[in-house]
Amino acid sequence: MAEPAANACAPIGAPLPAGQAVFGTDGIRGRVGTAINPALALQLGYWCGRVLKAEGPLLIGTDSRSSGPMLVAALTAGLAAAGRQVWQLGLCPTPAVPGMIRRHGAAGGLMVSASHNPPHDNGIKVFGASGAKLGRSDQQAIEAGLRGEAGPIDLAADGAATDRSDLLAAYADSLVASVEGARLDGVKVVLDLCWGSATACGEKVFRELGADLTVLHGQPDGCRINQGCGSTHLEPLRQAVLQQEAAMGFAFDGDADRVLAVDGRGRIVDGDQILYLWGTALRQAGALPDNRIVATVMSNLGFERAWTESGGLLERTAVGDQYVHAAMQALGAGLGGEQSGHILSAEHGMSGDGLLTALQVATKVHGRGQDLAEWLDGSWTSYPQKLVNITVQDRRKRTQWQECEPLWQAVQQAETAMAGHGRVLVRPSGTEPLLRVMVEAAEQQQVDHWAGLLAEEARRGLACT
Fold first, then answer.
1. End-to-end CA distance of the chain
2. Contact 109, 128 (CB under 8 A)
3. I need a labelling partner for 141 at 20 to 30 A (CA). Which of 48, 125, 261, 338 fits?
């Protein structure tokens, strides 16, 4: 890394208040103009340049949001002020960033995206030299700098930025190579590219494998990203699959690090079912260490019981791909992920990649001589599950919801009533001002009853101002 210029000591934006943290469960995310703004991005770029000490360039990618270029420019300025070389990747899926870090021996990278959030939000994810998201110690070092607690600002004069959007071609090639020669010739597939990062190369890689494609929301559009489409709004994909009589369809989120599928009958195939499908294929090939899959507390009980009854091991973590990643590393697991469709494969770099996952699902099902509906018929049955989101603006109330005695008592009552045949999960969102209440049971009537009662207690006790 370049030495700072002599006698250069100047402010680079106002510091954050003492004690304030900026990193959530998946980087930094919030409303543009308030929580996320160019001043914060400038400072963040500078302190990333200081904290990420490995030699080599730092990469920046972005999804299609209208605020992306503004934040990329501010981050680049901050990194350059720290004396770093910056490679700007342009529009790309989030997993392209860690992939290129590893491929080119970069010092780290940043992705400007708010994932599945609406267009008025944006965010910044930070990766280290290994391609993994930053651990808490590095996050705290950056936050200390943002709060003015890490010494003076030493501005360098030799930082620079280079357009390296040409690198995306190698990422697309790696996706095609991941299926090891498998083909999709003539298979009818629908892709919902969500107006976002998947538009960079999603259509290209599926066509290269011979798929008969229908593409929805296939151009980058920062004003419409995630709006009534993509992995959080599956109805357009479902309708298109049925109308086209397609074998399957895939919907991505805004930065294409996760995917959900729809089978030829319009049924949703979520991350749990994808893990079961991919895990079964790996186990049959003798390529799944200890027959172990890592999932989260949100994964369906039906999935857990089906996998363990077939001789597999299922480990659960807290919600968040960084927890799945850490558990996979600690256990030597080959596959893990979230119900939301964020799937990590040790063979493919341990980065959640929606496009790679979709290609794996499509080729593995087609290679069995089936369509996705036929595979789903023979897999497992989900327990009814209901998730209710309650807006709770007060962060302390949200994170310490157990202090609400009526809600806590209602949770205990629900768990006693379900007597081991169901479960309750209450947790604060790490990216939005929401308390999430999930109820799962063998009977839909129980799920509806307890989800409604718990949500009402949460609203009454926590959501009021």
1. 49
2. no
3. 338
With respect to residue 334, please indicate whether it lies within any of the assigned structural domains.
yes
**Residue closest to 183 by CA, chosen among 215, 205, 167, 153:** 205
pLDDT digits (tens, 9 = 90+) for 275-303: 999 999 999 999 999 999 999 999 999 99
Question: Nearest-CA neighbor of 187 among 211, 156, 152?
Answer: 211
Name the phi and psi angles at 52, rounded to 5: -80, 95
How far is CA 4 from each of CA 1, 42, 44, rounded to the nearest angstrom? 9, 17, 17
Q: How far apart are CA 445 and CA 136, in angstroms?
A: 41
Gap between the Cα atoms of 137 and 89, Å rounded:
27
- Mean pLDDT confidence for 45-69: 97
Domain that holds residue 250: 178-377
Per the confidence metrics, is the pTM higher than 0.85? yes
Q: Which of 376, 375, 360, 368 has its CA nearest to residue 206?
A: 360
Burial class, 162, CB count within 10 angstroms (exposed 0-12 / middle 13-18 / buried 19+): exposed
**Which member of 115, 174, 197, 299 is catalytic?**
115
d(C-alpha 443, C-alpha 440), whole Å = 8
The answer to whether 423 and 386 are in contact (CB under 8 A) is no
Lowest mean pLDDT among 148-152, 236-240, 282-286, 320-324: 148-152
Tokens coding 37: 């703004």
Decide if 260 is inside a domain. Answer: yes
Q: State how far the alpha carbon of 27 is from the alpha carbons of 139, 377, 420, 465, in Å.
A: 9, 38, 36, 28
Check: CB of residue 390 under 8 Å from CB of residue 435.
yes
Q: DSSP of 1-25, one letter per residue?
A: -PPPPTT-----SPPPPTT----BT
> Does residue 310 sit in the same domain as residue 205?
yes
For residues 377-402, average pLDDT = 92
For the stretch 405-421, pLDDT in tens is: 999 999 999 999 987 78
Last residue of a domain, one of 146, 168, 190: 168
Q: Pairing relation of β-strands 268-269 and 259-263?
A: antiparallel
Residue 115 annotated in active site: yes
The DSSP H or E segment spanning 249 is: strand 248-252
